[in-house]
Amino acid sequence: MAMEKPTNFTYMGRTFSDLNVEGGDDSSAFSDCNSDRSGEFPTASSQSRRLLIACAADNSDDLIRQLVSDLHSCSIEDQKQAAMEIRLLAKNKAENRLKIAKAGAVRPLISLLSSSDPQLQEYGVTAILNLSLCDENKELIASSGAIKPLVRALRTGSPTAKENAACALLRLSQVEENKVAIGRSGAIPLLVSLLESGGFRGKKDASTALYSLCSVRENKVRAVHAGVMKPLVELMADLGSNMVDKSAYVLSVLVSVAEARTALVDEGGVPVLVEIIEVGSQRQKEIAVAVLLQICEDSVAYRTMVAREGAIPPLVALSQSGTNRAKQKAETLIELLRQPRSGNAAARASDVSA
Prior knowledge:
- By secondary structure, the protein is mostly helical.
- Helix content is 67%, strand content 0%.
- It has 20 helices and no strands.
- α10 packs antiparallel against α11 (200-213).
- The two termini are 33 Å apart.
- It comes from Trema orientale.
- Keywords: Repeat, Transferase, Ubl conjugation pathway.
């Protein structure tokens, strides 16, 4: 299976040597994607939560065994209560996540993901998400058949279920072998849809999941075919959206494939990237110049387009005031733009001309 080495900073165990932003914590571009929210379950009062935590502190093993047993109940209400309490126990305590998984909760929780009851499905998704926060549980969750039901929840669930399903799929994608399976299960178009039409939390979770999944070449192509470039360009164009960095990083892993470069240009990405170089943050400028450099390296037509968008003045400014890496990339791109028909690129111009 074709895997591509990522090219940028260090995030979630992956090293990005080419676009690394100097002097900053690049992982802040993405949240930790723990989307569980304490207010999700209105049926759990503060008093009952305190009682649950007190019981767990005294004898969590017995409580967990009882909750796992209740997951098999014929009563939907009993299943809801058990899934909700498992979610609460797993939310903040790694020890409980391991205990719950070892007690056999994973398979019955996965069965809840296909429930026709939206609330039960949501509780199951959120419990699986919290269990997946533990690295030791990821392989078990995936091997127990969670990927396809999570994708189904991403398609049919409540807004919260969709967001938490996206986050759970992200967690499972941190195991390299799961990335292809998740992509082939139909997750990519659904994540693109969430990126396009979800709330801020949904967009954030979708972008992080896409970023992780698109280290695999076939998932890059799936994302482009699913129309990912349009929402990415729109989010990057909205400098007040708090999604510029996230969208730009997703773009940076996509543009290694030709389909993504073509789609980026077709969706009006060039003027957006030029504007970012002019007015964006240092990190945003560095990502933007790296992306433009990649699309211009082998295309005379794209070089001409970038130059006509007025890229040279802000690139000159970046070459004087950016980070060392940004300065180097800006200088390289300026040389390309000023000599658009140099080297072997002219022979390939017809391949990308309109």
